[in-house]
């Protein structure tokens, strides 16, 4: 990989508090004017707390400030300087905010507001400044709760407060401008966000001396926001460069394990995960996690977020058993930090739900997503931007469950809210078109799918430029849809466009390029274009071996795909060889009983079934079911499909129709939890049951099952529907027996 993707993580270092507060002209003004009339002991305590705050030692700062407030309360004579008392209360509010103690922060802010109303002895500049800082902190809290309108209202009021005090309060003006940019960024109004970040930087440049400006902490914080914005727009190199500039500023001002420095390392880790540089990502995340636990303790939102990033990194490596441990830690911690109906919990439930979705544990995912939907509706109302997240997530879930109409409805709600908030030309609108295109194509509406993907690309070109990676991703999806439509020549043109753009950005031997080859290989196999499938899968294998070595889960995944392709080609012995290699790699990585292992046992079982070795196939299906029940649940989607396989195997190996029918009924019952009775997944159920009924010489029911399969295949535009209908008619008239095996039935699909 390019050298710019590497950076050293320093070991944690403990340093004494610095005097960074002296670089804030307002703090200097406050100490030189107000603090002159305050007891020296109080001033010393306040400055120590301020030093700790600037140096990221928030617990120590809170202890000093709380001690100071307590001293005011227990004094025999009342404190005669209300300006000082007010400033202490404000600093306590800000420190509690940094610690994630939002309720304590809000209480301290309310106390400040009461002092401002009740006390007439406040200096005018101090009162105006503190009013501005209180309003700024309220804006920050509302921003973190995702109450964007309220946040913008407070932040703009704070800017008004600071007008006329530019010489003393320009750093708070910079903070306001930057925070407004963050709000717009989360609202996906990226151009507005960038303009506010630029205004903040220009304000700093205007007020700071030329030699001090490049190394000022607030300049570093601006670079940090630039980095986040570039990451959102998938500009990884630009993001890395921004974070690198930010880190240089921070390390010239802060100790090496200051919270702000740690945040930069966390963003580097996220970029490394996205670039599949997992060793670097894990090294950074371990450092970040240790530092955050040391600085904030175990129950802080940043610790929970680090667990989420760790889980994501492991999940991207297919290390799902480790990932779920960190996900559960993150959710448990979030439940301790937030109240039951707090919207902040929603993001944790969505992450956990997406993990269940990935492992096809649909019931658990649906339960979590519906919970988030209720929380968000109650907190935000029906048209808030946060609702797009949950509607999009539900669309993904129903899509994977093959409940296409419900998926389309949720994606359309996502699109409707996005257009209402952003207009027609915005990346979020393009994303909504993208997912609608995918589900329409998958449900058999290929032309509609191509139309929506074209709309997606058109919007992305206008907003992000013709050479953006978002446009490249759209080309790839068009290629997939065209392959599914058997328009291979047209598909090749769009695939070439995609690879040209992505290889220019990532290079030829990158995991993302390998993944593109892998997906196209699988799509080619599904269309029975076996030679093309093998060509693309072997390209993916070649790249991934360079990137990950020969014993990585991604290598096992490709061996499995090649095995399935060879099974379709009827090269059964070679297919078994590939499956066995995949099984050995997965055992080495995950142990004998894993999600990956039961999938491979099922695939090997399919090969033996196709070879007519039914007893061997039955043994392998049994093993797959046993593992699936342990690591998933007896009601899991995969268990249902395995029951269908085993039922079909029993009827052919032993001719025991009643036992087979019982197994098929068990499978059907499980599948009913996941997909509607007329969805594509039920094709296998109908084929299998028709085979059983034929063995039992119940030709009328056998024909009935095939007719159901015919109606579904016709609805979903699956080929060979006429053959299904002819077979059903022949059986019903008792002019022919069912002459198709389960493997032939699969071929018909």
> Which stretches are poorly predicted, pLDDT < 50 over at least 5 residues?
1-17, 676-680, 716-728, 730-749
Q: Name the helicity range.
A: over 70%
**SS field, number of helical segments:** 35
Rg computed from alpha carbons, rounded to a whole number of angstroms: 31 Å
Number of strands: 0
Shape: elongated
Helix/strand structural class: mainly alpha
Largest sheet: none
Mean pLDDT: 80
In whole angstroms, the N-to-C terminal distance is 43 Å
Q: What share of the residues does DSSP label as strand, in percent?
A: under 5%
Architecture overview:
This protein has about 750 residues and is an all-alpha fold. It has a domain at about 675-749. Helix content is about 75%, strand content about 0%. It has helices at about 25-35, 40-55, 60-75, 80-100, 100-120, 125-145, 150-160, 165-185, 190-205, 215-230, 235-255, 260-275, 280-295, 300-315, 320-335, 345-360, 360-380, 385-400, 405-420, 425-440, 445-465, 470-485, 490-505, 510-525, 530-550, 555-570, 570-590, 595-610, 615-630, 635-655, 655-670, 680-695, 700-715, 720-730, 740-749. Helix 24 runs parallel beside helix 26 (about 555-570) and helix 27 (about 570-590) runs antiparallel to helix 28.
